[in-house]
Amino acid sequence: MKLRAKGLGLLLLVLLALCSTIDVCDARRGKHWRPRSSPISSMLRKKGKGKKGSSNKQPRGNRPSGPKLPVSPPPSPGAGKGYQSPYQPSPSPSPNVPVSPSPANGTGHPSPKPPTPSCGKGNQPPPRPTTPAAPQGAVFNVVDFGAKGDGVSDDTKAFEEAWAAACKLGSSTVLVPPELEFLVGPISFSGPYCKPNILFQLEGTMLAPTSAKAWGSGLLQWIEFTKLNGIAIQGNGMINGRGQQWWTYSDTDDNDDDDTQYDVEFDRMPQVKPTALRFYGSFNVVVAGITIVNSSQCHLKFDNCQGVMVHDLTISSPENSLNTDGIHLQNSKDVSIHHTNLACGDDCVSIQTGCSNINIHNVNCGPGHGISIGGLGRDNTKACVSNVTVRDVNMFRTMTGVRIKTWQGGLGLVQDVRFSNIQVSEVQTPIIIDQFYCDKRTCSNQTSAVAVSGVQYENIRGTFTIKPAHFACSDNSPCSGITLTGVQLRPVQIPRYHLNDPFCWQAFGELYTPTIPPIACLHLGKPAGNILQSYHDIC
């Protein structure tokens, strides 16, 4: 018995010795047991704690007043809690410390993480030194930068500052919140030093100025995005060009010498009319969901862009608003336009020189002038357009349907064009190739022309009011490779129009199926000679 008692005593002593190395506080906190850290680790941890605790407030320093680029905190694991809708204005920042965007929505400080209570020495390893990283997906609401959104105050500066903040971060969003109207003057959201992949989320309305003073002697665009990579403008908002001032008072044929008196009386707008929304020199561009109305001239323009996607867009201006093209493409490649409604006073879509790989489908067009390639070769210039597909399009009461138009005296080539499944209703002339295009009273006759080759017309059906088809091609550069399949166009008698038969001049190709009405004037086969070779070399 004595031996057993001694053995039990020794066992208890051993157990007590082992338990002395356990951090009892950690056990009370429910943490996993960890071995004690070395004294060196404990000292490093104390230093790290001091630095961490001192960073809870932003340093005031000599910070200038006014809204500036928010200081970006490192992402917080709890940033998703207490999410504030990005469509509501954020709380006003303090006068000295700007509000920093959280990773969730870009407004407000993330909740500071409380320091971990310590009990015992060396219960955690030393913190690793970290470099503060900019939050991904930060949202910069223009209201937070001073925009009023009352439709009267000039909010241009707030838009510029919100853009500057997003530009420096990249992978971020500029938010134009809903149910507000923002008066914005001529503005350029430009690179090339912006970070890529910026989203311009348009939910409210942007209004163009109606004062002639805002435009000076005239500007080519109102809202411009330039030299960007990965730029998208999307949402349910509206861009309102308020172009009625130009349509009413700007007349290029007016020779009235008393312009000063006219300006005073009618606040006459300048002769140069701005495009509402222009993208220049950009890659991977998306425009989706928004509405553009009443531009003074072209509504949406892409110039020198590559990789463009436009969908679920609405463009609208009156039929009598002069030169208000819907979408204008120039020197742009790899463009897709689909599921879009276009109504304007000029071409629904205009495809100019330097364009290739253009795909347009599921588009409603009208009123307007149809979908056009050209005019090309103006003032004896070179023009090249290739690989264009227009399919599954509805046109209602437009001036033309699908059209190719070139000026006399130009050079170059339009090739590999396909118009397919085009439904026309009361369209004046559904099919046009015109190598004698002239928008003046008279144009001089010239021998050279932009050549047209390889144009397919498939399933062009519906009604016309003037002429079913018009092929007016150059004597020196006849149109070649025109093919017609499933063309069925029936006349609708309109009192003010006179119906005409199909017209052809120097047009060559094939009739794969009978047409309604018969287009017997098309020359079957190819034109004599191989004129196109030199144009291929030029393009």
TrEMBL record:
Keyword list, A-Z: Cell wall biogenesis/degradation, Glycosidase, Hydrolase, Secreted, Signal
Localization of this protein: Secreted
Compositional bias ranges of the Basic residues kind: 44-54
Keyword Mitochondrion: no
GO MF annotation list: polygalacturonase activity
Signal peptide: 1-27
A single cellular component GO annotation: extracellular region
Listed GO biological process terms: carbohydrate metabolic process; cell wall organization
Any Pfam family: Glyco_hydro_28
Compositional bias (Pro residues): 88-101
Region span, Disordered: 29-136
Family of the protein in this entry: Belongs to the glycosyl hydrolase 28 family.
Name of the protein described by the UniProt record: Polygalacturonase
Species of origin: Zizania palustris
